[in-house]
Amino acid sequence: MTRFLARHGRGLVGVTIASLVIVAAVAAPLLVPHDPLQSDFAAGLQPPGTPGHPLGTDQLGRDLLARVLYGARIALFIGVCCVLLTAIVGGLLGLLAGYFEGWPGAVLMRVADVQLSFPFILLALTINAIVGLGLRNIIVSLSVAGWVVYARVVRGEVLSVKERDFVHAAQALGLGRGRLLFRHVLPNVTPSIVILASLQFAQFIVAEAAISFLGFGVQPPTAAWGSMLSESRDYLFVAWWLAAFPGAALALTALGINLVGDWLRDVLDPRFRV
Amino acid sequence: MRAYLLSRLGQTVLVVFLSLTAVFFLVRLGGDPVLLFLPMDIQAKDLNEFRQRLGFNDPLAVQYGRFITRAVHGDFGESLRYRRDALGLVLERLPATLSLAGSALLLTFCVAVPVGVLSAVRRGSLVDFVGMGGAVLGQAVPGFWLGLMMIYFFSVRLGWLPTGGMGGPLHFVMPCVVLASFYAARLARITRSSVLDTLNEEYVLTARAKGLGEPVVIGKHTLKNSAIPIVTLAGLDTGQLLGGAVITETIFAWPGLGRLTVQALLNRDFPVVLAAVFVFSVTYTLMNLLVDVLYGWLDPRTRARARA
């Protein structure tokens, strides 16, 4: 039991936190009666503990609990979209670049080098500032900035997997390229993709919040944690709760997902270490 | 070694060139910079004159050629907002960013390496539990939220520290802690796992068997051999610190490159954006080069490989 807890304890904590966040996001309308966008000037800036508003209200009298819970929806939606997009596009490109070692793959890897020679958050921010604001564009910007990691790792894995005996055997049996690639090579690189995806998930959510915090990305009045934190700066002297709760929700979400990611890595592949 | 350095410098130039090219075309794809920059109610005549003056009426290829030729000479044009040489504006802000990133890096090392080593040596103890628990938390807590909360406690409630700006040593405290938190957390974890790996090596056993004291065994035999992953991550993070500075500088009104870049992006001041991209990518790639040279010193095996 102790050994089980030592190995899987953190994973359990992570799964619990992550499930709570998912439940909060899915069941938000059932958990709070308020509309996150419904303002009520008469009840502005109420402190936490006010009857009917457990976490208080913001400057427009919107219920903070409702906004934090609906914020989980935005955060998870962005995280899931970015992870799927980058894992599929980056993974596929890495698979092809590793399998066919021609010049397109080489060019792709140089592009990846250039992208990696730039801080991730700054890259995503610059792309977002240029393509424009809003939910769809922030997903595009984060994905464009984030796909290279998959391409890199998957390519490296494919390069070694394709020299293994079972691949040569499958080739000798006369299997088509597509079948070989997707039935024999892909399953062997999937664990790496899953581990990377879980580690990137939290990074995307935090990066989105950071970019929205700076005034790009998701715009008010949408209840997104980053833009809520951005608005809260003006009220820091009078209403600490506006900054405290959305940020705590963000940190908790990142913590839960990171713990799950660490655990997945320990279980699936002991070679990965961070 | 010289050939290696030269080829690496060549790569640096290529990376900087390609990133400038990418951003140049991205900016042009994003729409008419003049329309985006100027107020809505401007007259068509002025608009055209502004375009003509900045050369936006020429074909894209001509504009690109002109941009690169000038960039090679260090001329990124005039800031649309400040009407000043863009590169000069950016370079003026660089020392503030470097001093912040430098002190944050120092803080990261001073906290993360001792915590990581202690956690590894006293594995399973309270130190390990608290240290690694703190590291996991530090990785999850976003810097900009930590910054806001610190401003609330230390400036608004207690009045101990200034809320922002640059000045005395007190101004450094919060930005440094915020910038260092995430990287220190990661570095502490890497240090711990790297030291744990090294502690299992036979030369550590030999050193202990010789009767060497624990400080020598840990400090000389273990730490130097576990330094490679630590230096790798620290090198990668030095670049990411520059990215993190963008956010930290905005929260604490730090007059550095990051804040200038955010403002330039918000204002669509593209010459400044391009100059900032240039300075960022040069700094970042030079940092990576420095890390690779450090490797050679730490691990002579990589030196041989670099020569081959």
Keywords:
heterodimer; A: 274 residues; mainly alpha; B: 308 residues; 79% helix
The gist of it:
The complex is a heterodimer of chains A (274) and B (308). With 274 residues, chain A is mainly α.
Continuous helix count of chain B: 14
Euclidean distance between termini CA atoms of chain A: 26 Å
Query: Would you list the SSEs of chain B in sequence order as H and E?
Result: HHHHHHHHHHHHHH
Shape category of chain A? elongated
The value of Rg of chain A in angstroms is 22 Å
* Uncertain residue segments of chain B: none
Strand share of the residues of chain B?
under 5%
Count of distinct strands of chain B: 0
Helix segment count of chain A?
Answer: 10
- Main sheet overview of chain A: none
What is the mean pLDDT of chain B? Answer: 82
Strand content of chain A: under 5%
Task: List SSEs of chain A in N-to-C order.
Answer: HHHHHHHHHH
Helix content of chain A: over 70%
DSSP helix fraction of chain B: over 70%
| SS-based class of chain B | mainly alpha
Largest sheet data of chain B: none
Structural class of chain A: mainly alpha
The best one-word shape of chain B is flat
The number of distinct β-strands of chain A equals: 0
**Radius of gyration of chain B, Cα only, in angstroms?**
24 Å
Model description:
The complex is a heterodimer of chains A (274) and B (308). Helices cover 73% and strands 0% of the residues of chain A. Chain A contains 10 helices and no strands. Chain A is elongated. The model of chain A has no long low-confidence stretch (mean pLDDT 86). Chain B is built from 14 helices and no strands. Helix content of chain B is 79%, strand content 0%. Chain B is mainly alpha-helical and 308 residues long. In chain B, helix 11 (227-251) packs antiparallel against helix 13. Chains A and B meet through helix 4, helix 5, helix 8 and helix 10 of A and helix 1, helix 6, helix 7, helix 8 and helix 11 of B.
